[in-house]
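P.,

For your records, the input lines for the assembly:
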Amino acid sequence: MAELIAKTALDGQRPATGAGLVLATLPPGPVWSIAPFPGVDLAPVLAPLGLAFPTPGQSSSAGDLRLIWTGRDQAFLLGGAAPPGLEAFAAVTDQTGAWAGFSLSGEGGEAALARLVTPDLRLAAFPVGHVIRTALNHIPAIILREGRAGFHIRVFRSMARSAWHELAAVLERLAARQAAEQARPVPTAPVG
Amino acid sequence: MRLTCPLCGPRDRREFTYYGAGDYLSRPDPGAPAEAWDNYLHLRDNPAGPTRDLWYHDQGCAAWLLVSRNTITHEITGVELVADRKGGRDEA
Ligand SMILES: [Zn+2]
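Structure tokens returned:
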């Protein structure tokens, strides 16, 4: 078989910065969809890996492996291959080529996402390890809060460029607003 | 307007797509008389009060939802997963 070259979406894209935030493409890595067959409990298969099948809006991590909820009876395994034998208990499909991934890091990432996403993604409402499926403007997205100042964003590969455009434009606008606020003259007290 | 998806929580109306009356869940048997199919496909009540509709959470978890609402007060009184209803999902 021909040697195929794996390329991520937006291969070679340099990070975008603005307002103290950094938007970057994620390094290539496997994405496996795991959908347990009806009535099957995956705990005996996942527990040896240190993972649990996530409840809606949650994720489970162990080392480099991360299992994130992505829909009814479905989760994505990131960071490694699906454990052998899992396909006896769940529909396991390789989704690696179907998704593009971005990281948004820095203080105030939730304020940037609030311009594109309707649910509340502030830390109190969306703590570390929580995951959400929602629209990034009009683009279906999976958003994981990786840390206090870091989000992991996944969109369909076909929409990678549009999603990048939306996010980069937000950073630009936030930066412009910050610059405008710093340039505004400090009001002086009226002379009485 | 917001719908509270049983999986995703309260979400803006723009995340959902309306499909039609909840009656679509009551599909007649293949051999049912033509009147039953005519009723299923074309005849709808127009209630003043409680009614049920099907919505799809397309910009969220991609689940089908059965939404109960009141056409007089506009109150949404319930949202349930179609998959959780009897016969709503394939059994192993
Ligand atoms: Zn949902």
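Two observations worth noting. The first strand of chain A starts at residue 16 and ends at 18. Chain A touches chain B through 15 residues (CB under 8 Å).

Regards
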